[in-house]
């Protein structure tokens, strides 16, 4: 196991180092977004309907292990067919009726009806593109302990629990849950969410929040020698770009600096 050395770097040099790591990450992210496998996968994701929070809960209740769901005809259009005997997952679809108002035709919500969707595991047919590798599994137990101490010092509790649906970590506002299989970078990522995104007035998009947390995690991981980082793929999968990273540079740099300095205090 690697031993994490206490940082004796000056504040000015630390900020320069952080910015160099972010520039490196930005270049790799834009490169990842043009990778053929990434483009195939993003194109596949774009074809899938985005469900409401209520319907996502219905899907999870009916089939907790569901990953990609779509209607019968949607799967057919993508070269896959629902296997005979499979039971659909019930969700609610809006019922819209056409009305004419001031000479213009409009649609009004008249209610909802039950329709059925199917998870990819209930279908067969053309192979789907493999998701790009976005996990960073390398662990440093010493750094993990210091991260937990840092989190506790900031009023954040950390628990290690088996998570479903390929989830590596969850930030819950004062509490972080980490899957035991997750690497050290995931713990840093979730701590960054706690520090940056738990303000009630925070209205940033999910893509920007993930960009910020993952950028912080990448910088801190690089600083402490964590390898095997697939952060460019993770950020690209959330459709974030280098230009957005640079626009959030100050927030990312300040949070990474806060964590690095804080971890040095907990050595």
In short:
With 267 residues, the protein is of the alpha+beta class. It has helices at 11-33, 36-47, 53-62, 72-77, 141-153, 184-197, 206-223, 231-237, 242-247, 249-265; strands at 69-70, 80-82, 89-101, 104-119, 123-125, 157-160, 169-171, 175-178.
Commentary on this structure:
The structure is a single chain. This protein is of the alpha+beta class and 267 residues long. The chain starts with 10 loop residues before the first helix and ends with a helix. The protein has 2 domains: 11-35 and 132-265, no CATH class; 46-125. The protein contains 10 helices and 8 strands. Strands 1-4-3 form a 3-stranded antiparallel beta sheet.
Task: Report low-confidence residues grouped into runs of 5 or more.
Answer: none
**Helix share, percent:** 40-55%
In total, how many beta strands?
Answer: 8
Strand order across the biggest sheet?
1-4-3
Instruction: Classify the oligomer.
Output: single chain
Number of helices: 10
**How many domains make up the coordinates?**
2
The chain-level structural class is alpha+beta
| Strand-residue proportion | 15-25%
Q: What is the alpha-carbon Rg in Å?
A: 22 Å
Biggest β-sheet strands, sense, barrel = 3 strands, antiparallel
Order of helices and strands: HHHEHEEEEHEEEHHHHH
Mean pLDDT: 88
> Could you tell me how far the N terminus lies from the C terminus, measured between alpha carbons in angstroms?
16 Å
What spatial form do the alpha-carbon principal axes imply?
Answer: elongated
